[in-house]
Structure formats: structure tokens, C-alpha cells
């Protein structure tokens, strides 16, 4: 619980890289795999956006 009401409550991550997986069930492992696939997609989309922005900036400055 947060010490003060205005402090945001930190959510525990669904998966922590390197954590012990031996205590997880098959269902829990599948849920984590799905969550990680979704996160990879989100990261790839952001990478694409940043690449487009970089390309546009490079094109703008090459014109001058």
C-alpha cells in the first residue's frame, strides 16, 4: 500500500526476466508467453514509429 494517497500504486510485473519458472503451471506459462508476445508486438510497433520519424527528419535535413 502507498504511504500517501497521492502516490501511484505500483503493479507487480506479469513476468520478470530471469525469474524461476519451475513453480509455474502450464497455464501460467502459456499466459506469460501470450503477454510477452503482446509486449514484443508493442515494442516492434514503437520501433517502427521511431524509425519513420527518424527517416522523415533525415529526409528534411538532407534537402537543405
| Unreliably modeled segments | none
Order of helical and strand elements: H
**What structural class is derived from the secondary structure elements?**
mainly alpha
CA-atom Rg in angstroms: 20 Å
How many DSSP E strands?
0
How confident is the prediction overall: mean pLDDT?
A: 85
Note the beta-strand portion.
under 5%
Number of helices: 1
> What is the terminal separation in angstroms?
55 Å
Sketch the major β-sheet: none
- Shape label: flat
Percentage of residues in helical conformation: 55-70%
Task: Describe this entry's structure for a reader.
There is one protein chain. The longest helix has 38 residues. The mean pLDDT is 85. With 64 residues, the chain is mostly helical. The protein has a domain of 40 residues. The chain is flat, with a radius of gyration of 20 Å. 0% of the residues are buried. 59% of the residues lie in helices and 0% in strands. It starts with 25 loop residues before the first helix and ends with a helix. The protein has one helix and no strands.
Defining key terms:
64 residues; mainly alpha
Secondary-structure blueprint of this entry?
Elements: H1 26-63
Question: What's this, in brief?
Answer:
With 64 residues, the protein is an all-alpha fold. The protein has one helix at residues 26-63. It has 1 helix and no strands.
Amino acid at each position: 500500500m502507498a504511504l500517501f494517497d497521492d502516490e501511484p500504486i505500483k503493479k507487480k510485473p506479469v513476468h520478470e526476466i530471469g525469474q524461476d519458472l519451475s513453480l509455474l503451471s502450464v497455464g501460467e506459462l502459456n499466459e506469460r508467453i501470450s503477454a510477452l508476445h503482446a509486449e514484443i508486438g508493442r515494442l516492434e510497433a514503437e520501433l517502427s514509429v521511431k524509425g519513420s520519424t527518424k527517416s522523415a527528419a533525415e529526409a528534411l535535413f538532407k534537402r537543405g
